[in-house]
Structure formats: C-alpha cells, structure tokens
Amino acid sequence: MERWRKLDDVLRLGPMPEPSSNQKPNPSAKPKPIPKRYARCLALRRGTDRDAVLCIADGHFGLAVDRTRLQYERTPDLSGAKGGGMANLVDHALAIGDRGAAEEMLSIEGSYGTVNQGRFTVARSTHPWKEGRELFGPGTEVVVRRSSGIIEINGEPWEIFECNFCNRDLGRLFCRARFRVAVEQRAKL
C-alpha cells in the first residue's frame, strides 16, 4: 500500500506553497477553499460475467473490475512461495514469471489514472504490470448509443450511469479511439 501514498502528488490541485525559512507551518490554519466549478464526469457500468465500473472526472479515471471464480487452467507451481496467503502466492507467481497464475489469483482489479489528450494512462493499479500503460489503445472502438443509454467499448456494452458530456465532448475524450455516435431508429407505434 506504500505506493498508493504518493498519490497526493498526482492529485494535488496546484503547487503547494513552501513555508519561507523564517516561517513555521501553522497546523491550525484553515485551508483555502477549493473554488467550485462544473465537473465533467462520465460513469459507466459493464454488466458481464465480471462486473466493472469506470468513472471519469476532470482528467482522472478510476476502474474497478469484479472478481472471477478461480479456475486455473493448470496447477501453478507455488512450492517456493514464502508462507500462505494470496499476497505471497501472487508475489511468488510473479517472481517465477507465471503472470497467468498471478492474474487468476488477483482477478479483482482497481486502477487509477489520468486522461490527457485522449490517453487513459494508468498511474496506479492492483495489477502493477498495467501501470504506465494505456487503458484504451489507439485502436479502441467506442460507439455511443444515447437512446439506449449505452456506450460500447470494443463491442462490450457499458451502461451510462452519469454523463454530462455532449457527444462532441465525448469524441474529444476518446479522441485516440475510433469514435462514433450511432443513430438509432425509434420504433413506430
């Protein structure tokens, strides 16, 4: 968990003023209020065999993916693991290069990152191999189906929980993807 503690550098809203050499920090001083502004947000839910939630707000994103049942295709070699517990087993699997076994044991995912010019870059993740990589590559296909309340990402339907982006701004958000807005026919009564 130590690597998560450094997120204050990423989340800081601006440079923190350094106290001058003759001025001591005042712990009882009230912090200046953060100015209120209109936050751009998108919250999506994928309801497949592994539920997932993706929230995007003001240049940051969070992704949570539910667990799968542990169904090893093969029995991983865990004889050299130091002690019991899932964390030790995962560490050992990674140490011997058995990423597949580690992924199956972890199975739950939580990732945080930033969005900049259409790049969704993972800063922190429970899957450390995803850190520094893009969540969605440039070949990602994004289809918005507003009347259905769905955004498809690479063919997977994500239900829209909250969205205050217009279609043009969604296109800017996913500017590195193949983005389109589907025109859906309304049923005649």
Describe what this molecule looks like in 3D:
It is a single chain. The chain has a domain at 38-68 and 82-181. The termini are far apart. The radius of gyration is 21 Å and the shape is globular. It is an alpha+beta fold. It contains four helices and nine strands. Residues 1-34 are annotated as: Disordered. Residues 1-11 have a biased composition (Basic and acidic residues).
Q: What keyword list fits this structure?
A:
nine-stranded mixed sheet, alpha+beta
- So how many helices? 4
Strand content: 25-35%
Low-confidence stretches: 1-21
Helix content estimate: 10-25%
Computed Rg: 21 Å
How does the helix and strand content classify structurally?
alpha+beta
Largest sheet: 9 strands, mixed
Give average pLDDT, whole number.
78
> How many β-strand stretches?
9
Order of helices and strands: HEEEHHEEEEEHE
Q: Calculate the terminal CA-CA distance, rounded to whole Å.
A: 57 Å
Principal-axis shape: globular
Strand order of the largest sheet: 5-4-3-2-1-8-7-6-9
Region (Disordered): 1-34
Biased composition (Basic and acidic residues): 1-11
